Model the fold of this input.
Amino acid sequence: MINKYLNTKLTRKRLDILIEKYKTNELVLDLGSGKSPHQKWFPNKVSVDINSESNADIIADAHNLPIEDCKYKFVLSI
Done:
């Protein structure tokens, strides 16, 4: 299913369609979340970004995360 998106330009609309197929209420860790545009599909998302101006839940480098192992069901990094 994802292959059809790999050979075309990934616009915001196409990305939204793809992401919506994986929406969940499970606990999700969003790495490099930036402005966090994915909240509507992942309501139980914890955002992580290295930029302190990003309004992320956790400000940290992805190589050294201050989080508990195996706490999150999914990791999102777009």
